[in-house]
Specification:
Layout (H helix, E strand, L loop, with lengths): L1 H6 L5 E2 L3 E2 L5 H34 L12 E9 L5 E7 L1 H15 L5 H10 L12 H8 L9 E2 L2 E2 L11 H14 L22 E3 L6 E11 L5 E11 H5 L9 E3 H20 L3 H46 L6 H30 L1 H21 L5 H11 E7 L3 E6 L1 H6 L12 E3 L1
Parallel strand pairs: 7-11
Antiparallel strand pairs: 1-2, 3-4, 5-6, 8-9, 9-10, 11-12, 12-13
Helix pairs in contact: 4-5, 8-11, 9-10, 9-11
Length: 439
């Protein structure tokens, strides 16, 4: 920027260095070295600031003006260096019930942000300003990691503080997976876009011939009874779009009766629950935990090797700077600066990957507890499934079954969701062949 001013004929003066000139090669090199050193000092100051702010959130101190919905700020007697009393973040008991209700509607009933907002309005629940919750606000709240009991400062996150946790990690991560699958760009969705209607498998049922997703259609036929009254019989079917609109793309059956197909899948779900109840929880969790730990260890080894390579590259460019000063380098200062900055960014990203893997290894107790919680969640679904409404059944089915493919004569093939495979199939409780059945 200073060089641009000089080229435009605008004199730039510094109190300490005098006029900034770029008239010859020596001026350019001198200014490059000086500004490079200043940039280094600026980066060090920035790193010290980020480090201290990161330490503040690691200590459980909130950084921000307004607490997220579900929390409140209160003075608890803690003083800073200037003897000013600081605010502490705490759970707001009135608001926390609303936050949990949002996640319950989203996670268990499959509500979207619009339906959640409508539900809250009907219940007379308003935000802090006395207005209705908007879709944008609800979506932001469903993605807010603060509800896990985590405090943030920029890219730094604290560990989970149990006293600040509103939503458990399993529920939160499941909600994020639902949001991801409902996004427009996601290609392998198995979660229903909405949970309206009476069909069990809307969202994760596919044609076994062409692979297209089946849609639900309803039609009715009218019959005249002997007494003269008209009776309408409603028929609901899963229909292959390719077969109905582009027959040359599919040689399968046009449609499948919803009640007939759902009854078969319903039996499979009950079988999963029955077999899971007999699974040895402690042994199963221990085996799965050991497999996860080994996988993370491999990732850590690869990340460390990548970081060492990137760090060596940064060192090479720093050495090249000395060659530029002596006039021995083939690289010009501008190109070297770009390469050096890119190398530093790559090294920083590689270092972050190493730290993430190391943190994952250190949180072994939390991961094991998460696996146990997933196991308990599926078992709780077992007790809930027969008593809940259709919206909840749809979400349970989508969580258990990744995809259901149906072919002519109701030949059915079912892929279990990854969590169910890890929790049950990893211990060889049952054989996948049990789920390749014909109605």
């Amino acid at each position: 920027m200073v060089q641009w001013f000089a080229k435009q004929g605008i004199a730039v003066w510094s109190v300490k260095e005098g006029e900034q000139r770029f008239e010859n090669h020596v001026d350019k090199l001198t200014n490059y070295i000086r500004f490079w050193q200043a940039a280094g000092e600026s980066e060090k100051t920035s790193m010290r600031t980020k480090t201290r702010l990161g330490q503040i959130v690691q200590e459980g101190c909130f950084r921000g003006d307004v607490a997220p919905y579900g929390y409140q700020l209160q003075k608890q007697g803690r003083m800073n260096k200037r003897n000013h009393e600081l605010y502490e973040i705490m759970i707001d008991e009135d608001e926390v019930a609303v936050v949990r209700k949002m996640f319950e509607l989203y996670f268990m009933l499959g509500y979207g942000s619009h339906r959640i907002g409508t539900y809250l309005t009907e219940q007379g629940i308003l935000n802090r300003k006395g207005n209705n919750f908007t879709n944008v606000t609800i979506n932001h709240m469903l993605k807010n990691r603060a509800y896990l009991g985590i405090l943030r400062s920029g890219e730094t996150e604290s560990e989970i503080f149990p006293e600040l946790q509103i939503i458990d990690p399993h529920t939160f991560e499941t909600a994020q997976n639902i949001a991801l699958q409902r996004s427009a760009d996601y290609q392998e969705r198995c979660i229903p876009l909405n949970t309206r209607g009476s069909s069990l498998l809307s969202g994760n049922i596919f044609c076994g011939h062409c692979g297209a997703r089946l849609t639900v259609t309803t039609n009715g036929k009218k019959y005249k009874r002997q007494d003269g009254d008209i009776t309408t019989t409603v028929r609901t079917r899963y229909v292959c779009y390719n077969r109905t609109r582009h027959a040359h793309l599919c040689d399968g059956q046009t449609g499948y009766t919803v009640s007939k197909l759902d009854s078969v899948v319903d039996k499979v779900i009950h079988d999963i629950f029955a077999r899971l109840r007999d699974a040895p929880k402690d042994t199963l969790i221990a085996e799965r935990y050991a497999a996860q730990k080994a996988e993370i260890q491999l990732q850590l080894t690869a990340a460390r090797a990548n970081f060492q390579a990137r760090a060596a590259e940064v060192l090479e460019y720093e050495t090249e700077v000395l060659k530029v000063i002596r006039g021995d380098s083939r690289l010009n200062s501008d190109l070297l600066n770009k390469l050096y900055e890119q190398a530093k960014e790559d090294a920083w990203a590689a270092e972050q990957a190493v730290r993430q893997c190391e943190a994952a290894l250190q949180t072994s107790t939390e991961r094991r507890a998460s696996l146990a919680q997933q196991f308990d969640t599926v078992q709780s679904w077992s007790a809930l499934y027969d008593e809940c409404d259709m919206a909840t059944k749809k979400m349970i089915a989508a969580s258990l079954l990744r995809a259901v493919r149906v072919r002519r004569n109701y030949e059915i093939e079912i892929d279990l969701a990854i969590d169910c495979e890890q929790l049950v199939l990893s211990y060889d409780v049952f054989d996948k062949k049990d789920f390749h059945s014909a109605a």
